[in-house]
Design a protein that fits this description.
Elements: H1 2-31, H2 38-73, E1 77-80, H3 84-88, H4 92-98, E2 104-107, E3 110-113, E4 116-121, E5 130-136, E6 143-152, E7 157-167, H5 178-181, H6 190-198
Antiparallel strand pairs: 1-7, 2-3, 3-4, 4-5, 5-6, 6-7
Helix pairs in contact: 1-2
Keywords: Membrane, Transmembrane, Transmembrane helix
Transmembrane segments: 44-65
Length: 206
């Protein structure tokens, strides 16, 4: 349905552009009969009036979005507070010291960490001893940042944080700004990194 509406809109837009180009040629030829390029200039400004300014805007927008996404991608990746090797032999006493590296506090069922409010993510396939909390930033220039923190429930210490950046104009298959939707996401697979901890989970000494 959306595709049909866009097609109709595009057809009307093209017809309107052709009309304004025709008017432009007529006006320039009438008021500048001494200029042999009057018709070409009239067609050009008619095109810019109806369609050209949009193409210019989209070009500038695409550049701005790509630059912003690239800047945000510098923050993407994994930040480790407790390594898998440390976690294997972690005790309550040593956890108190490591907790200073990533201080947080609870607020109802959420966690306040690094100035953001993280909500708990309920997944059945995550071990009972680990919880995942997420925060999704406000969209800026079609770009959002998804933060995930992985918490040891028993020792109340954050193991690591994952940041993933994605740029999207609209849901897949429904966007005409494909040049924005084709900007690749960046960040690591947090669940793949979690497996490094789970490899030690059967050998924990607590």
């Amino acid at each position: 349905m959306i595709a049909i509406v866009l097609f109709i809109f595009l057809a009307i837009w093209i017809l309107l552009t052709k009309f304004t180009m025709k008017i432009g040629r007529y006006l320039f030829k009438r008021y500048r009969p001494d200029n042999p390029r009057a018709e070409k200039w009239g067609a050009f400004w008619g095109f810019m009036l109806a369609m050209g300014w949009v193409l210019v805007y989209w070009t500038v927008e695409a550049v701005v979005v790509r630059i912003y996404a690239a800047q945000m991608c510098k923050q993407a990746g994994i930040t480790v507070y407790v390594t898998p090797e440390q976690w294997r032999s972690l005790t309550k006493e040593s956890a108190d010291n490591l907790r200073k590296n990533a201080p947080f506090y609870f607020e109802n069922n959420s966690i306040i960490f690094d100035g953001h409010k993280f909500d708990r993510l309920n997944l059945n396939y995550i071990p009972a001893g680990i919880s995942i909390y997420t925060f999704i930033s406000k969209e800026i220039n079609y770009t959002t940042m998804r933060y995930e923190i992985f918490l040891d429930n028993n020792l109340q210490v954050i193991l690591f944080k994952s940041v993933r950046v994605s740029t999207r104009y609209a849901p897949a298959g429904s966007s005409y700004k494909f040049w924005i939707d084709n900007i690749p996401s960046c960040g690591n697979d947090s669940f793949d990194y979690l497996n490094r901890y789970l490899d030690f989970s059967t050998d924990l000494k607590r």
